From TrEMBL:
Protein name (database record): Putative ABC transport system ATP-binding protein
Annotated keywords: ATP-binding, Nucleotide-binding, Transport
ABC transporter domain residues: 6-242
SMART domains, sorted: AAA (SM00382)
Length: 242
């Protein structure tokens, strides 16, 4: 296995609400290498989305370190973290965040254009990403002319566009029927096989079975994980996924 793309070391995230402290994550260690897809499972409120937000530089830990492609995010300026997010991290939000005034193609090309990639090149890459999720023919449509599942696939294409090496997906199959959901997981899997590291938050054990490993969170703590190479089934059929 090659060098890790994402490393979380002793990561804790606390939220203060008056006198109360909510510990969303407590001392989490996690390393994800190129070629690996890791599923994160756990009950509601166990810290899954928090873990993803910290990994993508959208939130900062109270303690511990987050490294993306060897760079400690805490040592970077806000501008540098934003550049890491644009260039290295593909993030599929639960909330799709598509811009309604842009076509599917323009939505997908936007992160590249914001990063200075020229229009023609960005649009070619966007078309390839849309084709990867089976939406090449709808490239000219606007979000309100597409079904919820099609919009979700546009959001996934936007996360995949360009040479992103860390893919973070929070329930990416939420609005999709099972066939389309499987197609999205196949795309995520193929991207990881072709040279990316992926983290997939899911409640569905069938989806987690696409991963190489499953990390199981409870109350902000990693309570179980299947070993590298052991395959997701070893955990899903064991005690951890209960
Ligand atoms: N901004 C915040 N302020 C206070 N508490 C928060 C905040 N964000 C998250 N939390 C708390 O941190 C804990 C973990 O939340 P998180 O959203 O990471 O859980 P989750 O496992 O993704 O849940 P779900 O499966 O329901 O999406 C929860 O107890 C939540 O209420």
């Amino acid at each position: 296995m090659s060098a890790p793309v994402l490393v979380l070391s002793g990561v804790t995230r606390e939220h203060r609400q008056g006198e109360t402290v909510v510990r969303a994550l407590r001392g989490v260690d996690l390393s994800v290498s190129l070629g690996e897809l890791v599923a994160v499972m756990g009950p509601s409120g166990s810290g899954k989305s928090t873990l993803l937000q910290l990994a993508g530089g959208l939130d900062t830990p109270t303690a511990g370190r987050v490294r993306v492609e060897g760079r400690d995010l805490a040592e970077l300026s806000r501008r540098q973290v934003a550049a890491v997010r644009r260039r290295s991290v593909g993030y599929v939000f639960q909330d799709l965040n598509l811009l309604p005034s842009l076509s599917a193609l323009e939505n997908v090309a936007l992160p590249l254009e914001l990063d200075g990639v020229r229009g023609g090149l960005a649009r070619r890459a966007a078309r390839a990403a849309l084709e990867e999720v089976g939406l090449g023919v709808l490239a000219g449509r606007f979000p309100d002319e597409m079904s919820g599942g099609q919009q979700q696939r546009v959001a996934i294409a936007r996360a995949l566009v360009g040479p992103r090496r860390l893919l973070l997906a929070d329930e990416p199959t939420g609005a999709l029927d099972s066939t389309t959901g499987e197609q999205v997981l196949r795309v995520l899997r193929a991207r990881c096989d072709a040279g990316a590291a992926g983290v997939l938050v899911t409640h569905d054990a069938r989806h987690a079975a696409w991963a190489d490993r499953v990390v199981f969170l409870r109350d902000g703590v990693v309570v179980d994980q299947s070993g590298p190479g052991a395959g997701a089934e070893s955990l899903l059929t064991g005690d951890g996924a209960r």
